Structures are given as structure tokens and as C-alpha cells.
Amino acid sequence: MTIIPPDPNLTALRVELARLRGQRGWTFDELAERSGLARRTLIDLEHGRTTGSITTWHALAHAFDVPIERFLTSLCEGHPAPGAPQP
User: I need a surface site. Which of 49, 57, 59, 86 has the fewest CB within 10 A?
Assistant: First the structure.
């Protein structure tokens, strides 16, 4: 039996990035400086033109000083996370 996981919620992922950046009042330039990522990459992530790599999200987690799970759990928004109790 093949189990097909639900699609990741990429919209929630980019919204979480925008929310964190907005909470801190950082421009794309400031976040680029803090994360070591290119300004264009950050813009593309927030606008959904790219999803980035695990390395990208790792750098962002460090820049925002949050656990990487903060981003990764948003991928399951709208469906049960793996291992979560089923209703």
C-alpha cells in the first residue's frame, strides 16, 4: 500500500517568513545581512517564486533566532502533522 502525504502548505511557509520579518521591522536588505542570503532570494521566498532549501531555512531560523521547526511546522498547516493524534 502506498501512502501519499498531503501537499505541503507553501503559502503558510512564506506567510510565516513575512510575519517574522514584519514583526521585527526588518527590510529585505536587513534580513539579507543578518542571514547571509541574497536579497533577491528573500524576495522570491516571500513572494512564493521559490521554496528554498533546508540550508536556506536553517539560515533564516538563525537570523530570526527561532527553532527551524517554526518554519517547518507551517508546512503542515491545514492538515494533521505526521504523528499527530487523529480526531
Answer: 86
Tell me the C-alpha distance between 15 and 71, whole Å. 10
Helix (H, G, I), strand (E, B) or coil at 53: coil
Q: To 10 degrees, what angle do helices 10-24 and 39-46 make?
A: 120
Neighbours of 60 (CB within 10 A): 26
What are the pLDDT digits (tens) for 29-87?
999 999 999 999 999 999 999 999 999 999 999 999 999 999 999 998 888 777 777 66
Helix (H) or strand (E) holding 42: helix 39-46
The burial class, CB within 10 Å (0-12 / 13-18 / 19+), for 42 is buried
